[in-house]
Amino acid sequence: MNAFTSLSVAMFKASIRDKAALFFTFMFPLMFLVVFALLSGVKLASNVEIAVVGDSRVVAALQNSEGVNIQRIKESSSAIDMLRDGKVAAIVVSQGDTIDVRYANGDRAETGPALAKISDAIASANLGAGTTPPKYAVRQKPIEETAFEPIQYLTPGILSWGVSTAAVFSSALTLVAWRRKQVLRRIQLAPIGRGSVLSSRLLLSVVIALLQAVLFVAVATLPVFGLKLSNQWWLAIPLLILGTLAFFSVGMLLGAICKTEDSVTGAANLVVLPMALLAGSFFPIDKAPDWVKLITNALPLRHMNEGMLDVLVRGKGFDALVLPGSVLIGFTLVVSAIAAVSFRWEDK
Amino acid sequence: MRADGPAIVVSDIRKSYGDLRAVDGVSFTVAEGEFFGLLGPNGAGKSTTLEIIEGLRKPDSGSVRILGESPWPRNPALLPKMGVQLQASSFFERLTSKEQLQTFGSLYGVSRAAAVDMLELVGLTDKADVQENNLSGGQRQRLSIACALAHDPEIVFLDEPTAALDPQARRNLWDVLRAIQARGKTIVYTTHHLDEAEILCDRVAVVDKGRVMAMGAPAWLVRKLDAQTQVIVEHGTVTVEIARNLPGADKVIDDGVSVIIATNDAGLTIKALGELDALNKAQVRTATLEDVFLHLTGRAYRE
Ligand SMILES: Nc1ncnc2c1ncn2[C@@H]1O[C@H](COP(=O)(O)OP(=O)(O)OP(=O)(O)O)[C@@H](O)[C@H]1O
Ligand SMILES: [Mg+2]
User: Fold this and answer.
1) Domain ABC transporter, which positions (chain B) (predicted)?
2) Are A200 and A290 found together in one domain?
3) If chain A, 348 residues long, is cut into consecutive pieces of 10 residues, what is the mean pLDDT of each piece?
4) What domain range is A334 assigned to?
């Protein structure tokens, strides 16, 4: 075996022996995924939420029905947004005698009960009007775009977060540990290119990222969670690699700056946690104030998230990789250049 | 191959950290196959000297030649010929003894089997599958030496290989070091243990405050000191009066357990004691490197 393979094997062995790190790399994000998916499936109130636009006997009947919360909305477009975001189960737009019912065409649990309540309300309104043919004409139509089940945006988000966390932490910790345990000095004394050392460590991070993706996606596609992958899912692979590169370089930078394992762990948390929250890894941030969105767009994790969502779930093609890919590459170049400048072989 | 020059030539190297002169004009030459010791107290500059020779540090001035080549800047042609054990042992995380050796070996393109052979030399065959952090201090020290030897270097640098070992482990390690020398390697090592250096080294350099205070074969350094020998006999065998008048005797102390006679001519003193039939349980303590050190630095050697 040459130095590159042998170093890769050594580091792979070391990382599978580190049970705590294994847990944080694989089980911890998976727990997040499961918990969020379950939480978002649980309806705390059993009432169905229905948005209404306009007014009529139907709306009045709906308001009187049991187990229905209605939200009066002015514009039908904003009602559709609410429907897309899963805030309401259906929309009733009443204009004169015409009733438009809109619902999500995905298989959401709450769609059925909502439609049942609505047709009950229409029936009773028609009964009250007592005309033949019935006063209210009903048009039912699903909204064009599939509204996302929570698992659909949770999976790409938590995958990106898990990959970035693992890449930052493991590379930063390796660098600090190797410097503290003088492995770096020993490597300096061996006739081996620094490139082989760096690339074998990078390879390990990429392999870990791919394993994470396989695990998280496999769990998310279980019938309980019901993730549906797009046909373009394999476009996520280049994105995973670029994301790993970007966050590996963050880890290298933190590892270059920090002296001890403790301080580098703290620093990595300080970087990764706020970034994950702001980048919308756990919940969509579309509703966030504009200034937050501005910060968000500067975050590489945000672009990785979006790219993942596009290729894994939204079924977008190669084009969807261009922006996130360039952001991640640019970020990698800048951060790794700073890391290279800050790099030290030993503690002074 | 090169003509038979010295393995290592160090000429007047200096290194300061701020105002501190860690290495202050050190020069010496190590012949091929020689066992050379650098000894001195904490902070004497042993590690810094070694690291400059290995090419890990740049000297402020002076030069180093290893097998005719300069180790600084990093000289990849030279690296495979040197084996280095750093003062604090350096290992990869969570690898077993065998894997450590294989990984270090692979950095030098050594086959996995050849690397593992080193375990036998240092007597760790039964610990091959034990992770490094589960080894005892002495075992870790031996593994660290094995890792330095994994690629069969010509010159071996060992920084305090016997530090923090119990006397038994220390003696085991001496056997390892002798075995390495028997393989024709040049060894440069640092130690705090003057007695050990006396036993192992062909030549030593006594270092203090960044300077070489004396250099040569241990026995030669001791003899050059021309120090007194102590003849120690049991309390009660001779009186202090008698002892003081023995030929060669100088100072005499009776501490209630033994009578300690410092003599300038041990031969004569012992002969006279023999004639008095006072040699029962007698001991002779000759000068050691410790005395040389004491003499050179004007202070007792304390680790
Ligand atoms: N990187 C450094 N920065 C500042 N001072 C240093 C540095 N390295 C060593 N020194 C100082 O240089 C002096 C010599 O250190 P060195 O490590 O060479 O001593 P040593 O003889 O190996 O001691 P020991 O027996 O304790 O290992 C010490 O006073 C030490 O504090
Ligand atoms: Mg030292």
Assistant:
1) 8-234
2) yes
3) 86 90 90 82 64 88 85 86 79 87 73 84 85 83 65 89 95 94 93 89 96 95 86 93 97 95 93 89 75 87 92 87 96 96 88
4) 3-39+149-342
Instruction: Tell me what pLDDT residue A1 has.
Output: 64
If you search the block for the tokens 């929250």, which residue do you land on? A277
Helix axes A150-180, A261-278, angle to 10 degrees: 160
In chain B, what are the domains?
Answer: 8-223 (3.40.50.300), 228-286 (3.30.70.100)
A142, A158, A193 - which closes a domain? A142
The predicted structure's pLDDT at residue A126: 87
| Residue among A179, A138, A142 nearest A342 (CA) | A179
ipTM over 0.90: no
A331 is a domain residue: yes
A95 lies in the same domain as A233: no
Query: Same domain for A240 and A178?
Result: yes
The environment of the single-atom ion ligand 2, i.e. residues with CB closer than 5 A, is B 46-47, 87
Domain match, A25 and A56 both: no
Residues A135 and A199 in one domain: no
A215 part of a folded domain: yes
Give the percent of chain B with pLDDT over 90: 51
A347: in domain? no
Chosen from A7, A175, A184, A189 to mutate, greatest number of chain B CBs within 10 A: A189
One DSSP character per residue, B240-286 reads HHHHHTSTTEEEEEE-SSEEEEEES-HHHHHHHHHHTT--TT-EEE-
Ligand 1, atom 18: nearest CA belongs to which residue? B45
Output B53-59 pairs: Cβ under 8 A, ≥24 positions apart: B53/B8, B53/B10, B53/B157, B53/B188, B54/A189, B54/B82, B54/B84, B54/B157, B55/A189, B55/B79, B56/A185, B56/A188, B56/A189, B57/B15, B59/B13, B59/B14, B59/B15, B59/B23
Contact A10/B at CB under 8 A: yes
Of A70-79, B20-29, B34-43, B104-113, least confident by mean pLDDT is A70-79
Q: Is residue A348 part of a domain?
A: no
Which of B17, B194, B208, B303 maximizes ligand 1 atoms within 8 Å of its Cβ, making it the mutation to test the pocket?
B17
The predicted model scores a pTM of 0.80
In chain A, residues with a C-beta closer than 8 Å to the C-beta of B104 are: 186, 190
Give the count of domains, chain A: 2
Beta bridge partners of B37: B189, B204
Q: Specify the CATH number for the domain of residue A134.
A: 3.40.1710.10
Which of B204, B180, B203 is closest to B192 using CA atoms? B204
